[in-house]
Amino acid sequence: MAAVTSPETSTQPRVYFQTPPGAEVPVQKQGRVTVKYDRKELRKRLNLEEWIVGQLTQLYDCEEDEVPELEIDVDELLDLPTDADRARKVKGLLVDCFKPTEDFVTALLERVRGMQKLSTPQKKGDVTP
């Protein structure tokens, strides 16, 4: 790119950049953040997920990357009507764990209690039916 002074008559000179002949002009996409979440709730969720990973590494007595693929979906747990249903769901995910899981399940349910379900916020202009 070459710098060229402006032919305009102003008190301060301006500099314009011209693309050399034959060079491609990169197309820049404009990025915008369109979704907003409550940061405090996101932080709580992240802390919970880190705690879960730590607990699972202890339960399975292995490194973090060796923990079996378990999907403990907090939103799914929050959708269940009772703690008994939540406990049954988590215990079902931990069937292949040989260590006792009662303390983990109890602590998890205690931490989940009071959390909010993270739903995708609506964009401006969307109308709820």
What does this structure look like?
The chain has 129 residues and is mostly helical. It has a domain at 39-112: DNA polymerase, domain 1. 38% of the residues lie in helices and 6% in strands. It is built from four helices and two strands. The protein has helices spanning 39-59, 74-79, 83-93, 102-112; strands at residues 2-5, 15-18. Strands 1-2 form a two-stranded antiparallel sheet. Helix 3 crosses helix 4. The longest helix has 21 residues, at 39-59. 4% of the residues are buried. The model has no long low-confidence stretch (mean pLDDT 79). This is Protein phosphatase 1 regulatory subunit 14B. Keywords: Acetylation, Phosphoprotein, Protein phosphatase inhibitor. Residues 1-13 have a biased composition (Polar residues).
Please describe the structure with a list of short key phrases separated by commas or semicolons.
129 residues, mainly alpha, DNA polymerase, domain 1, two-stranded antiparallel ribbon, 38% helix, Protein phosphatase 1 regulatory subunit 14B, CPI-17, protein serine/threonine phosphatase inhibitor activity, phosphoprotein, acetylation
